[in-house]
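Protocol step 4 of 6: structure prediction from sequence.
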Amino acid sequence: RSRRPRASPRRDDRRARRNARIMGFGDTQEDVTDAEGALFPIFVVSMLGTFLIPATIARLASAATKTERGSGEGKGDAASSKKQTQTISTEISDVESEWGKAAMASMKRRKMTTGRRVGGLFRGTNLWYTLGWIVMIALSVYITRTPLQEKRFDPYDILDLRVGASTKEIKSAYRKLSLKYHPDKNPDPAAAVYFAESIAPAYKTLTDDVARENYEKYGHPDGKQSTKLGIALPEQLFGKGGMAPVMLIVLVVGGIMLPLFIAMCSIRKMNKFGGNNVLKQTQVNYARMLKPVLALSKVPETLAVAHEFIETPFLDGQDAAVSQLLKDYKNEYESKDQKLMKRLPTIIKAHMLILTQTSRRAASLPPVLSADAKKLVLTLPRLIEELLKIAAMPINRAGHSYARPQISVMEFYQCFTQGVPLSSRKRDEDGNASLLQLPHFSTENLNGVAKKCKSLHALMKLSSEDRKKLLIDARFSEAATKDVERQLAVIPRVTTFEAKISVDDDDDTIMEGDFVTAKLKIKIGRSGGPLGGALPPLPFCAADRTEGWRVFVYDQSTNTLLASSTLKQRDVEKAERGDEPLDLSVQFVGLPSGMYNVGVSLMSDYWIGVDAKVSCMMKVLKPTATNVAAREAKSASRSDVTKPNAEVEEEESSESDYSDDDEDDYSDEDYPSDETGTSESDDEARARIDAMRRPEQTKNTVKEGATAAKPASVPQRKTSTFGQKAAAARPSIPGQAVVQQTPATEKPVVAEEVKPDTVDNVD
């Protein structure tokens, strides 16, 4: 006999679900991907906007700041807001002269047109920003036009019935739709798909009691459904739908090959280029060419050995053009130097093109050299900056370097920017060169002005009427005179430049190894008012540059650069627009003992004849016990004036306690002696020293009763490691006078007692 299984709710539920699957009510296989790909664009837009929007805002803010400064409308800080910035005049009175034509071409080159603004969006970093926004906008439009919600299965809506319709009504509605969409009645494939995917499942759902009950209760024929979680990625990315080979290729190329290629390019660039996007071979060439004393005429020769210029091809037809330039500029370089003529042709070509820029003859170059000249002018500023960095490399442990190479490079930077020949500029004299940077000045009409005003500084001191009369007498036209006045209103003047060298809190006593501070006060002014960061006119230089200032502290007798500092843009604006001078501190390690003539220079890399220089005498003492005691006493006397009496008494009491403890410690026979630095006791040391001095006292008829005083034990001033080892092993500085030192084999000499009034005379 066969028994019929007992009915149970669990078995009935499984049976109902099996029937629902057979009837096609739903698919129980979960798919975590976005089959339709509707959510993937939202994911891309959100990730792209996370990085693109903040970066764009920061870039626009930076561009707005530069535009505000460039237009001369910067507000500055609260202290400098009272001064109005001047507006750079674009008017040129004499447009027929050489300077007028060059100025017009420069303004045309700087003028921002609509085409240049649009073209700027597709150059450099802006290209990536533009592409990112194009992709983001396109995806946003696609998202707005694509339905994001999946259509819900509603059998009543498909059969056009009311909720709760009877079985008769359901069959009648199904019969009507079958006559319209059944494949036997309608050959249209779309109708067959609609009948199989919508009409038939809707009829089966409403005619099955379990499926209908599940739908009316849970909204799905299969009953209650679990929450479906997935990722916003289309199924094609996982190889479905025949996309597996394509996705494999994409993963290999995009995930392996492309990152590897980018890494190789980055490593190759890091190995080839150094800082400031300069080739490392160029840095090596510059380091070999630099000399301790680099003359101004040697700077173009040094810059020409850059590997960027060596890699520039030497085209056919350039040989004759370069030979002609060698003849034209024979006064600008050492034409008798045979080593110079044996260089590579590309180096000689670069050398001549540099001299062409400083001679204002770039417009008259033959076409075969014009392209190389434009590229050279745009490349040269960063090469000059790199040369300054290499020239500042330390030559000793104190961090000092050579001064003359950096000063010569700065002087060349000025000539390069203003287009002034190097031959017109003598060492430490900027007279004719400073006048040649003015509009309409040339070597032909320079003498008429130079007879009465030998420099730019002297010309700026004259009143407007006297200056106009002088220019008219020198055969300058009225239009040329107006152009000169406009240029003089833009050229800066250093109205205040003071320097004080001290140690710490205004302590004038400087010893070996101290960290010395040069405190400067700088004030810059212009007759036309502050520029506010605007670019002054630059007719003869195609490279758009901004003004820069550098401070050099150096020993004038030994060619030793002690320290240098570059003024930041906010410091320059404060020095130009502030009511008070700019306070600037430059620190350096002190030199060996002696008297030094320290020069402090403020140099511009833009204008000629606006530099300022002061000289300070610096006396460096040896860190002997007497000198240290004198400085400590001076410091203590200064602090006693400011401290209350109670604090002074408390400090003296603590010092007395400390001295008592020290005496106990010094009594130890194993403690090193103050005088000898050995383990012998103080009594033994004094006895030995007295025995050494007694013959000398007898020979020199020293008065009876005179005894050698024991040097006081004074706490040593904290100095740098360089200062502590100065007497033992101090590196020699090229060009510095040799200081005579006691040989190591001789016995140590103990200093005699020195009176307080002769402390300054101690070597």
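Step 5 (inspection) to follow. The beta strands are 401-402, 493-503, 510-511, 515-525, 549-555, 560-566, 582-589, 594-604, 612-621.
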